[in-house]
Write a structure and sequence with these properties.
The complex is a heterodimer of chains A (80) and B (149). Chain A has 80 residues and is of the alpha+beta class. Chain A has helices spanning 10-16, 30-41, and strands at 2-8, 20-25, 51-54, 57-59, 70-74. A five-stranded mixed sheet of chain A has the order 2-1-5-3-4. In chain A, strand 3 (51-54) and strand 4 (57-59) form a beta hairpin. Chain B is α+β, with helices and mostly antiparallel strands and 149 residues long. Chain B is 30% helix and 36% strand. In chain B, the strands form two sheets. In chain B, strands 3, 4, 6, 8 and 9 form a five-stranded antiparallel sheet that branches. In chain B, strands 1-5-7-2 form a four-stranded mixed sheet, with helices on both faces. The longest helix of chain B is centred in the middle third of the chain and has 19 residues, at 51-69. Mean pLDDT of chain B is 90; it is low at 136-149. The chains are: A alpha+beta (80), B alpha+beta (149).
């Protein structure tokens, strides 16, 4: 198991009921971690609609999860 | 310079920071909160940003604009927090020696910002419904869950 830090924004934060959490996970990839958290928190957005950031940068869903990683799951956004 | 701020935006201050004696053309965009969207009356908006990444990606966009359009300078500031109808949400400014590059670059900055920078908006409607935009199932009449750590 690895311990990682996950932050949520917008609709995901509303659904999770928290802005961030420490997560113990066996997920191999960032996308797999999202799916695990989606089941846990009842997120309805599929992984395909989520962008992922690792340690402050956009990252691919197949990024391997490592201990102490900071992950952000980015739901569809609309600035401006 | 791409910045996220919770303070109200002052286009006059932002203009003074950008202009210098080489600036033959200056083009700006101001994005304001409208009173309607999708046929509903909007009474306010909440903007939030993943600031660390928003500022990085926004800065990259400005650097791309400088490289692509041969402009002198570009800047963009986006406000977060609760905004009322009519308030200024985003300001982008570009200076160039001539107007063509300035118009093109300003367009590029705003279009790319909307596509690539992690900023979210939640619209509040007169009906009592509020919705996160860009999200197909974001409509809710319930107040947001309390943030727990």
């Amino acid at each position: 198991m690895k311990k990682v830090w996950v932050s949520y924004y917008a609709i995901l934060r509303d659904r999770a009921g928290r802005a961030e959490e420490a997560v113990e996970t066996g997920a191999e990839t960032a996308a797999a971690l999202y799916e695990e958290l989606a089941r846990r928190h009842g997120f309805t957005l599929p992984a395909a609609r989520i962008r992922i950031a690792v340690d402050g940068e956009f990252a691919a869903g197949d990024t391997p999860v490592r201990s102490e990683m900071r992950l952000v799951f980015i739901p569809p956004f609309a600035g401006g | 310079m791409f910045r996220i701020t919770s303070a109200p935006l002052d286009p006059e201050v932002l203009r003074r920071e950008l202009l210098d004696s080489r600036s033959g053309g200056y083009v700006t965009f101001e994005g304001r909160v409208r009173d309607r969207n999708d046929n509903q009356e909007v009474i306010g908006l909440d903007y939030e940003a993943y600031a660390e990444l928003a500022e990085k990606e926004g800065t990259r966009i400005l650097e791309e604009a400088r490289a692509r359009f041969g402009i002198l300078a570009a800047a963009c500031v986006h406000r977060v927090g609760h905004l009322k109808v009519g308030e200024l949400a985003v300001w982008a400014g570009v200076t160039a020696e001539h107007r063509g590059a300035a118009f093109d670059a300003c367009r590029y900055v705003i279009d790319e910002m909307k596509a690539r920078v992690p900023i979210w908006k939640k619209e509040h409607y007169r009906s009592g419904v509020s919705a996160w935009l860009g999200d197909g199932d974001g409509k809710s009449t319930e107040p947001p869950a309390e943030t727990k750590m």
